C-alpha cells in the first residue's frame, strides 16, 4: 500500500469515524470557526476526501445500468434523469468536507492543523504526497528482498544446526541395512 494511499485511507477512516462519533450538534459548537478553518485547510492539503470522489458517479452508473436493464426502452430518459439527479446531489459533498474537518479538529489542535496544512502545501509536502507511492513501492521491494534473505539464512542455519545435532546423536557404527541382514564385521 502506498504512503499516499495510507494517508488517504487513514483520513477516510478518521472522517467516517467522525461522522458516527461526532455528528451531534453539540460537538460542532465546541469547535471554533478558526479551528474549523484550519481543519478544512489541512483536509484540503492532504486530499483527505479524494478517495470518496467516485462514490456518487459510481452509484449513478450502477443505478443507471440497473434501471436500463429493467427498462431498456427508457434508456435515454433514465440516463438523463440519473445524470440530473446526481448533479443535484453533488452539492452534498460539502457535508463530507465538513465532517472530515470536524474529525480532524477533534484530534488536532488549531495550531497542529495549521502546521499540517503548511507542510503539505509546501514543496516538500507536495513532493511527499506525489512521490509517496514510488517510495513505498521501492520500500516494499527492499522489504521483500530482505524478507527472502532472512528466510533463506534462517532455514540454512537451522538446517545446519539440526544436521549437526543428528550427526552427533547417530550411533558410531553403521546402521543395520533395511533388509534385516547384519553388517559384515570389518576385516583386518
Explain what this protein looks like in three dimensions.
The chain is an all-alpha fold and 188 residues long. The chain has 2 domains: 3-121, no CATH class; 133-164. It is 76% helix and 0% strand. It is built from 8 helices and no strands. The chain has helices spanning 3-21, 25-30, 33-45, 55-70, 75-89, 93-107, 110-121, 123-169. α3 runs parallel beside α7, α4 packs antiparallel against α5 (75-89) and α7 (110-121) packs across α8 (123-169). It is elongated. The N and C termini lie far apart (71 Å). The model is unreliable at 23-28 (pLDDT under 50). Residues 163-178 have a biased composition (Low complexity). Residues 95-152 form the DUF2059 domain. It comes from Mesorhizobium muleiense. Keywords: Signal. This is DUF2059 domain-containing protein.
Chart the SSEs and their pairings:
Elements: H1 3-21, H2 25-30, H3 33-45, H4 55-70, H5 75-89, H6 93-107, H7 110-121, H8 123-169
Helix pairs in contact: 1-6, 3-6, 3-7, 4-5, 7-8
Features:
0% strand, 8 helices, 188 residues, 76% helix
Number of domains: 2
Count the DSSP helices. 8
Query: Terminal Cα separation, in Å?
Result: 71 Å
Cα shape: elongated
Helix/strand-derived category reads: mainly alpha
Rg from Cα: 32 Å
Contiguous low-pLDDT stretches (5 residues minimum) are 23-28
Task: Report strand %.
Answer: under 5%
Would you count the extended β strands for me?
0
Series of secondary-structure elements, N-terminal to C-terminal: HHHHHHHH
